[in-house]
Amino acid sequence: MKIDVVTIGDAMITFDPSHHGPMRYASTFERKAGGAEFNFAIGCARLGLQTAWISRLGNDEFGKYIRNFARGEGIDVSGVQLLNHYSTSINFKEIREDGSGKTFYYRHHSPTEALTETTLDELTLRNCKLLHITGVFAAINPDKNIPLLKRAATIAKDNGAMITCDPNIRLKLWSSEEAKRGLTELLPYVDVLLTGEDEAELLFDVHDPSQIAQACQKYDISTIAIKKGENGASAIRNGELVHSSAIPPKKVVDTVGAGDGFDAGFAYGLLNGWTLERTLKFSNAIGSLVVSVYGDNEGLPELGEVLTKLGERDFIER
User: Fold this and answer.
1) Domain 3-9+36-56+120-309 belongs to what topology?
2) What is the DSSP annotation of the chain?
3) Active site residue 121
4) Which of 121, 1, 4 is CA-nearest to residue 55?
5) Phi, psi (deg, nearest 5) at residue 258
6) pTM passes above 0.70
7) Which of 134, 154, 185, 288 is the most buried (most CB within 10 A)?
């Protein structure tokens, strides 16, 4: 039986401050785990999808913690190795009162440098229904990771998998010029693009959804979803443009991970053959749930929680 979802990428220890405001005034932090692909994998697993994650971590206490965390979420970590002579990547977060914030990365000499085209878990890639890639992993080491992602996408696609991509541009990891050049190399391998408005504008120099879809035609990208935060999301497939309004959260406390949760929801809709309208509404509901909880992935919901948020399942408190 095929694995539903596979993703490739780094994971980090995330240090969350004990109070809001500039990080230079934070004196205590809570250790958590995060990373774009890691969060996506957790989001998929919590929705009930069979999920595998391919990565490398340091053979240290942080690496063991992350691998155990993923395994505890039901993620297949057979493609994750702990390596000597590498330290697991870390980052520190700054969170403001409105839930916005900054991330400070310490991921130079990432353990994923040891993940190469020749060490890819090809068996897992041949046996998946959907491969999810992001610009974060590409940005860590573009010269090596972009060819690696091309190879992974080719293997998966040749065996019938769908390829989804979130540009997830982090300008602290590479410049806008490098991001545009590197991600444009990956687009011919992509079936479904899951992008933010600002990322689409950087990649294609256009902002309107119809223009974005037109720009994607040269890459044969069949579906484009455009995340707009508090303004909801739009999607285009075969000329059909659909918009779904955001679902207001009770309170926004931390926006990190909302895009990864949206991606997991969209993958769930794709694998279940849902309409664009249904998929967008479901994905927006996940984003709303994520931003109401502190942490990169603590707010990623199980399927029942999403259905309750959508009013499709009763909430029973006691």
Assistant:
1) UDP-N-acetylmuramoyl-L-alanine:D-glutamate ligase (3.40.1190)
2) --EEEEEE---EEEEEESSSS-GGG---EEEEEE-HHHHHHHHHHHTT--EEEEEEEESSHHHHHHHHHHHHTT-EEEEEEEETT----EEEEEE-TTS-EEEEEE-TT-GGGG--GGGS-HHHHHTEEEEEEEHHHHHHSHHHHHHHHHHHHHHHHHTT-EEEEE----TTTS-HHHHHHHHHHHGGG-SEEEEEHHHHHHHHS--SHHHHHHHHGGGT--EEEEE-GGG-EEEEETTEEEEE-----S-----TTHHHHHHHHHHHHHHTT--HHHHHHHHHHHHHHHTTSSSSSTTPPPHHHHHHHTTSS-----
3) no
4) 121
5) -65, -40
6) yes
7) 134
List 76, 260, 263, 296, catalytic entry: 260
Residuewise pLDDT in 10s, the chain (318 residues): 899 999 999 999 999 888 888 888 888 999 999 999 999 999 999 999 999 999 999 999 999 999 999 999 999 999 999 999 999 999 998 888 776 778 888 988 899 999 999 999 999 999 999 999 999 999 999 999 999 999 999 999 999 999 999 999 999 899 999 999 999 999 999 999 999 999 999 999 998 899 999 999 999 999 999 999 999 999 999 889 999 999 999 888 888 889 999 999 999 999 999 999 999 999 999 999 999 998 889 999 999 999 999 999 776 656
Q: Say how many C-beta atoms besides its own lie within 10 A of residue 49's C-beta.
A: 22
Residue showing tokens 């690496």? 63
